[in-house]
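Example 3.2
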Amino acid sequence: MEQTPPQTKSPLVRQQKVVLRRIRAIDAEIRKGSYPNTNDLAKKLEAGVRTISRDLDEMRLFYNAPIAFDRSKNGYYYTENSFARTSFSDFATLPPRMERASFVRTVAPLASF
């Protein structure tokens, strides 16, 4: 009887799962109302500050998450209490991170007008 090799997930799928876990954790922290900042999130999630910043940008751009920064409280919050993103697992609609980075570089400057 011939055994089939175990299915291994591609590095891209593993990377997307890691990003998804961070995004869900960021969402949970913002929903708590604790006004987390990038440093707090980076420590809690054991990630770099720039990684957390990219994740926040992805949440805004690709999930339309109404995230803003409150300077007086030094942290992020949702500007719309009705924002009900129950799942940040819709990675099928997102291109891989490198393509998203390219999109951000080409489209984000236009969004500032």
